[in-house]
Write a structure and sequence with these properties.
The chain is mainly alpha-helical. The chain is built from 28 helices and 9 strands.
Length: 682
């Protein structure tokens, strides 16, 4: 009998690779993408957990200050009863007193207006500000709410369709409240609004400053939420906000309740999947861009160390958000789209940085950065993952066959990269360079055929641009290798995603772990974040390259060492974080795969792209070779040894802190050797 078309293997594969938007399938797709070739695994979820599935620690930071039900539901009872703690005292000492002082200023201003205009509404507002001043000085074990009379009046003042009317009132205060809630510009009190709004500027500004400061401190985010409502209160027209002690009551409309000024679990807080600490680092991004474009080059050179530090820190949140957006978009798209995004935008930070360096003719720095990236991802990253995993689990096992395949592929990629180096070192021209030479022609007993006696002579190769053998033989070979390596990468993607997808993904299980729910970042939001972060780093990279030389000179670091360490590791900081997180959760296989995938992308995508970019710049700017695919012998041997060391350490399929320490020690030794080696040629 015929197999129904919908049940054929081809149809099943197409259905499996279709675009998905619902939460559970998106999270399953995300976990499967982590196990595929060419895609760097990403630890963070792309869907949101339900409240009931979260830990007690996470629940305690999800409350909303204007929704008391969330506080009593998720905040521990001991926090609600513990009013005198370190966080609350911190609030009083550093923020509470001057925020309260701003409320007193607003109250005094409203009272002065009352004395001059004799409007009872102003007196009520002054009394409200006085109550809020006492509240914000120590707002814990207290809550702000509407009086029952005002709640009833505001309900009567609004009909079912939201249109506001005047309700009958029994006293003058009620009339003031209803007029205030109505926002009626024809009200006789309308002109008074503009006067007391002047007094609202002071508390609003102080609350805004406190809100930003407590938000950046992370652990005091509850105090930041408190100050956000303080800013809103400054322009709130309600004059009869009351303050009561204890917990909010069910029959009252609570406006604000914060049980504590801080919580040490807020390092887990996230905004659409982006950790709060990473989000706060965007302050460095904005500061770097503003200073880079506003200040002169002389000012930037004078403060090069500070600007370089700010630009370096800015790389981490941008790289993290780019990785997060790629992972989210890929999980909601087909496997092919995910692989292409990972191969292109996964290296966008490094490629933008290398392009800026090549424009400044710093090919040696780019070369050392590429070498440093491979060393970091093959030695330091798996080493740290093994150390953290070993300290927590003693020993973990992983699929040594999969690790061997990734390492073998990387070794093949390195062959393509270093073939031009081997050819040039073997057949290129050499010049003899001698030092400490003495003229012997005046010595009559000396050999007449000898004129100089030197203590040290070495054979060195000239700049590749000055060698005819490089221009005629090595440079064309470099271009050929730069074309073949990306094609090999694409063949690997086709092999794992299409022709042998079931064999490669045989061990994956859709039942592994919990399924997701709401998607944290839609494809449109992820694409916007991806493009936005790319543009931001493009702006930052110009400033970074401008201050690079004076900054390194101030700290006594050569560009070669900086390329091996800072410029190589910082753009991959998000991958380092993911590797450590996977290791701490016992998934050492994915932790090691991150390093291999990053090294493969460096060898098969970034290095060929740099060769092509350099060739384009050299042809259009009419200058010498900016970047050549000829590496120093020490770099070639170091990279090959790092791959061999990784294969040797992981050949038994076990991971412990001893093996990790060996890899980290080798990384330190190799980088230390490079730091004392002579400067590299482009």
């Amino acid at each position: 009998s015929k197999v129904p078309p919908s049940n054929t293997p081809k149809a099943a594969m197409e259905a499996e690779d279709a675009v998905v938007v619902d939460g559970p399938r998106v999270e399953v797709r995300h976990r499967r993408l982590n196990s595929l070739f060419g895609i760097i695994p990403w630890k963070s979820r792309v869907t949101e957990r339900l409240y009931d599935e979260r830990s007690v620690a996470v629940k305690s930071i999800l409350f909303s200050p204007d929704r008391p039900s969330t506080i009593t539901q998720y905040v521990e009872p001991r926090v609600l009863s513990d009013h005198i703690n370190l966080a609350n005292l911190f609030w009083v000492a550093f923020f509470g007193w001057w925020v309260s002082l701003g409320r007193l200023v607003s109250s005094a201003w409203s009272f002065l207006l009352y004395m001059g205009l004799r409007k009872k509404r102003l007196l009520l507002f002054a009394e409200r500000e006085l109550r809020l001043a006492r509240y914000f000085f120590f707002p814990f074990n207290k809550y702000v709410h509407l009086p029952r009379k005002q709640v009833m009046l505001s309900t009567r003042a609004t009909d079912g369709e939201g249109e506001q009317h005047r309700a009958p009132a029994t006293d003058d205060a009620a009339t003031e409240v209803v007029a205030l809630l109505a926002h009626d510009r024809s009200s006789p009190h309308h002109h008074v609004d503009y006067l007391f709004m002047i007094g609202a500027i002071v508390p609003a500004f102080l609350h805004a400053v406190a809100m930003v400061a407590t938000w950046l401190f992370v652990l005091t985010i509850p105090a930041s939420k408190l100050n956000l409502h303080g800013v809103l209160f400054s322009f709130d027209r309600r004059v009869t906000l009351d303050v009561s002690r204890g917990l909010p009551q069910a029959d009252e409309e609570t406006v604000l309740f914060v049980p504590s000024a801080g919580n040490h679990f807020y390092y887990k807080y996230s905004l659409r999947g982006v950790n709060i600490i990473v989000a706060n680092l965007f302050a460095f991004v904005l500061a770097s861009i503003i200073l880079g474009f506003v200040m002169s080059k002389d000012w930037l050179a004078a403060h090069a160390g500070l600007i370089f530090f700010m630009c370096t820190v800015s790389i981490f949140p941008l790289a993290y958000c780019i990785g997060m957006s790629i992972s989210s978009i890929a999980a909601q798209s087909t496997f092919g789209v995910g692989a292409v995004l990972n191969a292109s935008f996964g290296s966008i930070i490094e490629l933008i940085l290398y392009y800026q360096l090549l424009r400044e003719e710093r090919g040696a720095t780019v070369k050392s950065s590429l070498v440093g990236t491979v060393l970091g991802t093959m030695l330091l990253m798996p080493g740290l993952a093994m150390i953290f995993s070993g300290l927590r689990y003693k020993e973990r096992r992983f699929n040594r066959a999969a690790a061997g395949v990734s390492a073998a592929l990387l070794l093949a990629a390195l062959v393509g990269i270093f073939l031009p180096t081997i050819l040039f070192r073997t057949y290129g021209s050499y010049d003899m360079q001698c030092t400490h030479c003495t003229n012997l022609q005046q010595n009559v007993t000396a050999d007449p055929n000898r004129s100089l006696e030197c203590l040290q002579c070495t054979y060195e190769q000239p700049d590749p641009a000055d060698d005819p053998f490089y221009r005629d033989k090595v440079q064309p070979l470099s271009v050929v290798c730069s074309v073949i390596l990306p094609l090999t990468y694409l063949i690997g993607l086709w092999f794992t995603l299409r022709t042998h997808a079931k064999e490669i993904d045989a061990g994956a299980s859709e039942a592994d772990g919990d399924n997701g729910h709401d998607v944290l970042m839609s494809r449109s939001v992820g694409l916007s974040l991806l493009c936005g972060c790319t543009v931001l780093f493009t702006l930052i990279s110009e400033t970074l390259v401008t201050v690079l030389e004076p900054a390194l000179k101030n700290i006594g670091l050569s560009e070669q060492t900086a390329g091996l360490t800072l410029l190589a590791l910082v753009p991959n900081s998000a991958e380092f974080l993911n590797a450590v997180q996977f290791a701490l959760q016992g998934n050492i296989s994915l932790a090691l795969e991150i390093g291999c995938a990053a090294a493969v992308q460096t060898s098969m995508i970034q290095t060929p792209a740099v060769v092509i970019i350099s060739s384009f710049l050299d042809a259009h700017v009419a200058r010498s070779v900016t970047f050549s695919l000829v590496f120093p012998s020490i770099s070639m041997f170091a990279v090959v040894l790092s791959v061999i060391s990784y294969i040797t350490v992981s050949i038994d399929g076990k991971a412990n802190y001893f093996q990790g320490a060996i890899l980290v020690a080798m990384y330190i030794l190799i980088v230390g050797t490079h730091s004392v080696a002579p400067a590299l040629n482009p």
